[in-house]
């Protein structure tokens, strides 16, 4: 944590210490004398704020720089910590610093600045407003008195003109905006909100933080109240891109159809965006459908939102294969969550009917005025899945559609750790960079995500049980599909699961099959959300699309290390969907499978491989 009085921080900046401290805190490894990028931004903006506080008579005010929001990768440039001059109650002001000289509004809270091209960014007032809402949502001490939090954006290189475009925004206490020519107003407002209190910063940093809302527990409220998930930065860009496309499509029947493609890794908020979009569209009487390709995810959403009212759930949450008979543009919006699970044509379609039967991407684009695809490049795990960004782009452009692409950044699962996603990609050889020990990757950073490995499966289970006992959080074990999956057996008229996953003397059953009712065992769709699921081993079919606090992952013999390189072994899989696929395809799909399993945990992961050479490799890279 980089914090101190404005006076002390400014002194550290003058002595060349502050930028190095910020770099260590954030984990940036470039040279601190850089004039571009993050270092240049700190050098040009941080002293401006600290000098302003000194000029206001607030040199002793406590300041936290690069404050990381709870359970989020997002950082606020500065949090000014004090007490209210009149009441003496806690007072915190979140500050976003911008070096922009000019900006233009491009609609729906999005702007471009300094002649920027390409993907727009959030209006800075909206950005800091969302940060305030997020902080209030995850720090109960502040949520009890939300008036103690304020937010502002300071564009210290910009000057208002007669037609200053950023004023066309509904500002509130969380989203004020000041420019260089309003320095006096800013100083007056800061002194009206803040007085020095030595313990103010410490009170905030030590305040209890409630865990981020799980998709499973907040889905019900999300459909009726969009505030359950606060969307930040690029999540908001995606949200507003869809809003703009819908407004255009509904208001202008001749508009060129826009396909929205939202790309993001695990935990970047794709499902949160999907639910927020559904809530906003449905509330505006837009004809909208939410769709996935996962039975487990769809049934969980139906149950979470509508409880026992199954018919209403079926009306709202559909499957990708429900659009084959839809008429062109009969829906305003189709939101495709987990779109990497979209399917192509079945190989069993007769040649003379192939022109009539199209893949699911084509069907959904036809059915909706605004089709929205939210997907992950590395979560295609079955041979017929065609939901890669390239697939969507090719079909959309072949159909004459415009494509609006939004790339999500940051990790909202995995403890807000973008480094963990990088570590997994490198570990599995899914990027051009070599694997790296976790401790080396996070050295000199504040990353708190937990990565460990064990020597045996009973150690994995014990590790997870200790986390459940100590934190009361959820945990699950998932494994590669390398053991047969037996039907339950009847013991004196009572069904029970078979202990199929056998590793030495450690035996556990797979999760229950879909549609099979086993006493005391959750159905496959609820394995990730029902606490009883800990007693069974999940697989890719029940884990994908879900999250739990602590993840245990067992790598089977289908992917092993030989002489320092990954080797896929198709003959060791029990997944019938992968039987007979070409070796290079199997290699790609099995690595994606383990990538999914490794990134389900919100706070940490523990890994184990049944292969000794592979487990030794894991042990070296989890230190």
Describe it.
The chain has 20 helices and 26 strands. The chain has 623 residues and is α/β, with parallel strands linked by helices. It has a 6-stranded mixed sheet, sandwiched between helices. Helix 1 crosses helix 3. About 3% of the residues have low confidence.
Strand proportion: 15-25%
Give the proportion of residues in helices: 25-40%
Structural class: alpha/beta
Strand order of the largest sheet: 1-2-3-4-8-9
Average pLDDT, all residues:
86
Q: What's the helix count? A: 20
Low-confidence stretches: 211-220, 352-357
* Biggest β-sheet description: 6 strands, mixed
Task: Give the overall shape.
Answer: globular
**Subunit arrangement of the protein:** single chain
- Distance from N terminus to C terminus (CA atoms, Å) equals 24 Å
Rg estimate, integer Å: 26 Å
Strand segment tally: 26
């Amino acid at each position: 944590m980089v914090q101190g009085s404005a006076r002390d921080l400014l002194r550290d900046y003058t002595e060349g210490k502050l930028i190095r401290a910020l770099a260590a805190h954030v984990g940036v490894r470039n040279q601190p004398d850089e004039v571009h990028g993050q270092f240049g931004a700190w050098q040009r903006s941080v002293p401006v704020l600290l000098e302003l506080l000194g000029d206001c008579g607030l040199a002793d005010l406590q300041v936290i720089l690069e404050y990381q929001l709870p359970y989020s990768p997002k950082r606020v440039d500065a949090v000014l910590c004090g007490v209210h001059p009149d009441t003496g109650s806690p007072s915190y002001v979140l500050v976003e610093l911008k070096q922009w000289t000019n900006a233009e509004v491009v609609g729906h809270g999005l702007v471009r600045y300094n002649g920027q091209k390409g993907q727009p960014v959030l209006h800075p007032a909206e950005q800091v407003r969302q940060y305030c809402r997020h902080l209030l949502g995850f720090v109960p001490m502040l949520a009890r008195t939300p008036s103690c939090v304020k937010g502002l954006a300071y564009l210290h290189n910009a000057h208002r003109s007669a037609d200053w475009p950023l004023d066309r925004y509904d500002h509130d206490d969380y989203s004020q905006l000041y420019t260089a020519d309003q320095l006096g107003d800013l100083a007056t407002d800061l002194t009206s909100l803040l007085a020095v209190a030595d313990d103010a910063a410490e009170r905030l940093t030590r305040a209890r933080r409630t865990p981020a809302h799980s998709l499973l527990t907040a889905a019900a409220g999300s459909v009726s109240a969009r505030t359950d998930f606060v969307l930040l930065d690029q999540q908001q860009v995606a949200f507003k891109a869809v809003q703009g496309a819908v407004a255009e499509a509904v208001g202008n029947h001749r508009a060129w159809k826009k396909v929205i493609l939202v790309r993001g890794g695990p935990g970047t908020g794709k499902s949160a965006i999907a639910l927020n979009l559904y809530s906003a569209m449905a509330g505006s009487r837009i004809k909208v459908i939410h769709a996935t390709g996962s039975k487990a995810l769809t049934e969980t959403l139906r149950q979470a939102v509508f409880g026992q009212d199954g018919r209403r759930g079926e009306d709202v949450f559909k499957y990708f294969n429900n659009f084959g008979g839809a008429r062109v543009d009969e829906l305003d919006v189709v939101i495709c969550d987990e779109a990497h699970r979209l399917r192509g044509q079945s190989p069993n379609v007769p040649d003379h009917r192939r022109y009539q039967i199209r893949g699911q991407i084509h069907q959904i684009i036809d059915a909706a005025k605004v089709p929205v695809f939210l997907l992950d490049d590395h979560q295609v795990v079955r041979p017929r899945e065609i939901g890669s960004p390239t697939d969507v782009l090719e079909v959309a452009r072949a159909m004459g559609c415009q494509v609006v692409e939004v790339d999500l950044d940051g990790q909202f699962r995995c403890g807000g750790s973008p480094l963990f996603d990088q570590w997994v990609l490198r570990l599995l050889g899914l990027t051009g960079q070599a694997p790296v020990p976790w401790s080396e990757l996070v050295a000199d950073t504040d990353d708190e995500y937990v990565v460990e490995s064990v020597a045996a499966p009973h150690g994995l289970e014990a590790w997870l049980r200790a986390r459940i006992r100590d934190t009361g959080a959820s945990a699950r074990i998932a494994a590669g599909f390398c053991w047969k999956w037996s039907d339950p057996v009847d013991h004196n008229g009572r069904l029970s699961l078979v202990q199929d996953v056998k590793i030495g003397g450690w035996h556990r059953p797979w999760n229950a099959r879909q549609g099979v009712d086993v006493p005391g065992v959750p159905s496959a769709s609820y394995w990730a959300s029902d606490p009883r699921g800990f007693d069974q081993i999940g697989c890719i079919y029940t884990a994908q699309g879900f999250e739990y606090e602590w993840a245990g992952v067992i790598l089977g013999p289908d992917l092993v290390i030989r002489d320092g390189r990954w080797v896929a072994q198709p003959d060791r899989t029990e997944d019938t969907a992968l039987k007979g696929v070409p070796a290079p395809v199997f290699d790609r799909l099995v690595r994606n499978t383990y990538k999914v399993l490794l990134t389900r945990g919100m706070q940490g992961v523990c890994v184990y491989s049944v292969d000794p050479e592979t487990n030794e490799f894991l042990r070296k890279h989890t230190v």
